[in-house]
Every structure is written in structure tokens, then in C-alpha cells.
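dude i think i finally got it to work??
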Amino acid sequence: MTLAGATTGPASAQEGSRELRVAVMQHDVLHASAGDRESGTNLEIALLSRPIGRLDALGRPQAYVSGSLNSDRDTNFASVGLAWRRSLSERLTGELQFGYAVHDGLLDTEDPVEARSRLLLGSRDLFRTVVGFDWTLSDDARIGLQWVHLSHGQILGEGRNQGIDTAGLVMTYRLR
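look at this
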């Protein structure tokens, strides 16, 4: 059973609503202790649609558009995709997202110093996958944790593919 098909009922009181998300994410979490890769904090903002009824067979995902700005002027990105959220308990929900992202980071370099200080992404086009968990605070707000991975997977590009991983805190607000 997948998360998308885990329940048939609404994920929360926010089901059926558009949403605004604001997240503070640690940039490049897999290399954070190395001190020689990208750093900083990402501010991410996303807008999510109401669940798409025409995609009932796919678990009624929400469409999203998002942007992420890095505080240290490293890689920024924008993305679009689909998000599936399902109840895990009365107040806890899980979410999976899958989408497409573009970024302004480095593709490749011959400079060994730059190669040690930046992520080499190999393609301007990346897949964006997300796993998240939210706790319902009220009918209009949730707080949660998210892990975001961006990579071309040797499908959207070839060669370098170090990818970017961010993780952090996300607040979701229901838009009425």
C-alpha cells in the first residue's frame, strides 16, 4: 500500500482548500559537516491548489508551484509538481511530492576549487521529490518537517549529478 492510497478520507480540515507554505530549510544537508560544499538556509514558499478531482485515480493530488532562495547565494530553484497528503492519525499527516525543478546552480566546472565548494548538478532541469510529515495545529494551520531531494537521475541530464538535499521546518496555512 502506498501513502497516496493509505486512506480514503480527507487528510485534514484543510482538505479541499488551497494552501500557502513557508519553509525554512537547511541547504545541502548531506554535505553540511564537510564545510566544503554549499551552505546557508533556504527560504521556500509554495502555493498548492485544491485537490484535483479529475485525478481521482491517482489519489487526488494537489498541484504546487514553489520557489527556494538560498541565504548564501548558492543554488536557488523553482519547481512545479503534484503533492499527495494522507492521514496517519487524527492530527498527523504524511506527504509525498514529485515534480520538476529548474535552478541557477553550477552544472560542471574544470576549476578544482569551485568543484569542492559548489554542487555540480549536471543539468539545469531536475526532478524534485519530497517526503514530509505535518502536525495539525488548527483547521487553518499545520507545522511539519520536510526532506527535499533534487536530482536529474541521469534521465534529465547526464554526467555530473551530485543533487541537492534540503531539510527543515514548514508551516502550512489554509487559504479561504
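The longest helix spans residues 112-117.
im so relieved honestly
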